[in-house]
Give the backbone structure.
Amino acid sequence: MFCKNCGASLNDTDLFCKECGSKTNKENEFISLNSNNIPPLKIILLSILSFLFPLFGFIFLLVKKDLETDLTKNIKKWSIIGIAIQIGGLILGLTLIFLLASFFASMADDFIMGVYDFMSTLA
């Protein structure tokens, strides 16, 4: 690789020319985190949206079904993770509801029996 300004030889990792100090185009490779030139912030935001709202991710994938990019791969991955966590949360929530309902039902039975016993001693 050679400097566009002075023609000096450059290493592949140089960000500036050692002779004249001008910038090379290498810094753009470090900024871009994906192969399709999609801004990293957009990938992060859409991945978070896909995790929180998996339906959003799958709708996005249906619209962009013919496009296989880093963005669609991330959205697919986080949508699937989001759905798995939501299903797990649903199962856990329903289990807790049934456990609490049976606990309070047994407490109510004990309370009613206690009131019944108390009332029978008064009569």
About this structure: The chain has a mean pLDDT of 77. Residues 70-122 form the longest helix (53 residues). The chain has two domains: 1-31, 32-122. The chain has four helices and no strands.
